[in-house]
# Entry
Amino acid sequence: MIEKLSGVGVALASPMNDDLSLDFEGLGKLIDHVIEGGVNYLVLLGTTGESPTINWDEQLQMLDFCIDKLGKSIPLVFGLGGNDTSSLLKKLDEVKGRKIDGILSASPYYNKPSQEGIIAHYSALADKSTFPIIVYNVPHRTASNVAAATMLKLAEHPNIVGVKEASGDLNQCQAIADNKPSDFLLISGDDALTRPILTMGGEGVISVLANAYPKAFCEMVKETLAGNSKQGEELNEKLIPLYELSIKEGNPSSIKAALTSMNICGTSVRMPLLPASLELTNEFRNLTTN
# Structure
C-alpha cells in the first residue's frame, strides 16, 4: 500500500454544468489531464470535490464513472467522511465490492469528539471497511484536531494505513514522522507545506494544485522525494504564486477558475460556495498563456 499511494495524489475537483448538474464530460477531461501530468493516484470526493453538497446517489454515479474511466491505470481513493459513524458504516457496505484502492475519511466535524471518541470512530470504520483507511486531519474545517499521539495509536490498526495531515502544524507532522510504523503513510494535505513534510519523512501529498498544474507539481515532489534538495527547492519557488492563487477565493472555487482558464471545466459550484471571479480566472489564464 505504501508504494501504491506514495507520491502525488490529486484531490479531484467535481466539474459542474451551469445548471449545477454534474459535468461528467468535464470530469473525464480532468482525469485525462492529471494522468497525463504524471499524478500517481486520484482522490474522489474530498473537500475539493464538494462532497458536502453532492448527494449520495450522485457520489455513487461519480465513483462508478471514475472506476470505468480508470480501468486498471492508476489507483483510486474514495472520500467518505462525516460526523455520523453509523451512517458511514452503512455507506461502506454500499461501496463494498467496487474497485477502490482506499478510503479517505475526514475526522468528525462539529461534534468535537474527544481523542478517545476519534479513536473509537476510526476503529469502527477500519473494522468494517474492506478497503484501507486514510485518516484526513483538517482541524481548520472540522474544529477537531487528531493529535499526534491519537494518530500513532490509530496507526496500530492494520487497516488504517495513513494520514492526510492538513493541521498546518509541522511539529505535529514531525512527531508522526518520527514515531510511525514504516508502512504507515504520512501524506501532506497542504500544497504549500508539501516540501517540509516530505523532507521530514512524508511519503507524498494529496494535492489541490495538481488538478490544474500536475506536471510542475509532480516534478517538484519527485525531486524532493529523490533527495535532490536544490532542484526541489527551485521547482517549489516557481509554484509559490500558484499556491497563493489556488486559495485566493477559497477551495474549490479558486482551482475551478484555473481549470476554466484551461478549458477543462467551468467555474460552477453549489451554494453556499460561490464561483470564482472573472478576475481570478483571467489571472490564471495569463499565467498559462505567458
Notes: The chain has one domain: 7-226.
